[in-house]
Specification:
Blueprint lengths: L2 H31 L3 H29 L15 H14 L9 H25 L3 H29 L1 H9 L7
Length: 177
């Protein structure tokens, strides 16, 4: 592997480690300040996923920095879809009388923007990838970050207008009869 290619990968991996570490720390701090169980559970689970991403990147860093290149098998990230399902279940338990801490919605909106930036970061690196497994890995991570943003959007809607959130989530059917 050419030295310039190795350096490109190391720089991207290092930036990703910082991104994921910062995300984890932000989510843990936000979870401590959340005023309700739905927020605390969502934010803690997002922190766990960010930490999992960080560990995967640290493993990649070891491989690439030792000039072993990108691993032959893609490192799959866990599915974030379960996070949204878990959030919906907790929100159903709480009901429409949700309490939001001062600044919680603002924090959620900031987190949404950070997840969107992470999504874009990983998409860009997928496009620059030299190895197919590298491209697949970054694509999976981009999808994970997008799912994180969607979960946060769901939570923001729940905080802002729980009645509408329930109507949308529960998909009630209205018959004309």
């Amino acid at each position: 592997m050419p030295a310039s290619e190795q350096q490109r990968m190391i720089q991207a991996i290092s930036a990703a480690i910082e991104l994921e570490t910062e995300g984890r720390e932000c989510y843990l701090a936000a979870a401590r300040n959340s005023a309700n169980e739905a927020g605390r559970k969502l934010l803690k689970s997002l922190a766990e996923e960010e930490d999992d991403h960080r560990r995967r990147f640290e493993s990649l860093y070891q491989s690439v920095s030792r000039d072993h290149g990108w691993p032959a098998a893609p490192l799959r990230a866990p599915s974030s879809r379960q996070i949204r399902q878990n959030l919906a279940a907790v929100c159903r338990e709480i009901g429409v009388k949700v309490a939001g801490a001062a600044g919680e919605l603002e924090m959620v909106n900031i987190a949404i923007e950070k997840e969107k930036k992470s999504h874009e970061f990983y998409r860009e690196h997928a496009e620059k990838a030299a190895f197919q497994t590298e491209k697949e890995f970054y694509t999976v991570l981009a999808d994970e970050e997008w799912e994180h943003a969607r979960a946060l959007l769901d939570y923001a809607e729940y905080l802002t207008n729980p009645e509408d959130w329930f109507a949308e989530t529960e998909h009630p059917s209205l018959d004309g009869g």
